[in-house]
Write a structure and sequence with these properties.
This protein is of the alpha/beta class. It is 29% helix and 21% strand. The chain has a single domain, classed as Maf protein. The radius of gyration is 17 Å and the shape is globular. It starts with 9 loop residues before the first strand and ends with a helix.
Length: 214
């Protein structure tokens, strides 16, 4: 249950059911003047059309589609994000298909399958050629028909030859952050937030929202 919002607190629905993202979003918004809710908090059950929201060809298209869909269902301002891994040696793959990449190639589903498939695809690539980045686009809609506010952010790194660390989710155990000098799977959450694609994008959007005229 979420607490009642104070007059100076803004209601905000975060349009994700991903438990890893929910954890990170709660942490990123901690102490800020937002009354957060996620789809289950507003009794928004998963409907059959939800998987189609991530069938776009860009992170921005997917983020806006999710924000508009949930803003319409919930009737409150909504934030959605879409993010993924871009590997230079794979011409930017898996990109927007990051979450279901292995499944699309018949190699299983879920984080473990995606990581194993990534290592297989990069097996012959030397260390210096394993550069990659995480990219995130955050979309905010005041109402379902409003023009979306978009923020994009990236973080640079490279893909290791074996996973390190059990924190985070997705490709985090394989993604070695250039700035942190460790994988996102090893990094404490505050350190990850400081440099991550999602942390940077959310902070930039929050700055825009809190400075808007009341």
């Amino acid at each position: 249950m979420t607490s009642a919002a104070s007059p100076s607190t803004m209601k905000l629905l975060i349009a994700t059911r991903n438990q890893g993202k929910i954890r990170e979003m709660r942490d990123l918004f901690a102490g800020l003047p937002f009354d957060l809710a996620f789809p289950p908090d507003r009794f928004l059950e998963r409907l059959p059309d939800e998987p189609d929201l991530e069938r776009g060809t860009s992170f921005a298209e997917n983020a806006v589609a999710k924000a508009r869909y949930f803003a319409k269902r919930a009737g409150v301002p909504t934030l959605a994000e879409d993010s993924g891994l871009e590997v230079d040696a794979l011409e930017g793959a898996p990109g927007v298909f990051s979450a279901r990449w292995a499944q699309m190639h018949g190699a299983g589903a879920g984080d473990a399958a995606n990581n194993a498939f990534l290592l297989e695809r990069l097996a012959a690539v030397p260390d210096e050629g394993r550069t990659a980045r995480y990219r995130c686009v955050v979309a905010y809609l005041e109402t379902p028909l409003a023009k979306p506010q978009l923020v994009e952010a990236t973080c640079e790194g490279r893909i290791l030859r074996e996973p390190r660390g059990t924190a985070g989710f997705g490709y985090d155990p394989l993604f070695f952050s250039t700035e942190l000098g460790t994988t996102f799977g090893e990094a404490p959450l505050p350190a990850k937030h400081r440099v991550s694609h999602r942390g940077r994008a959310v902070r930039a959007l929050v700055e825009v929202l809190v400075r808007r005229p009341k």
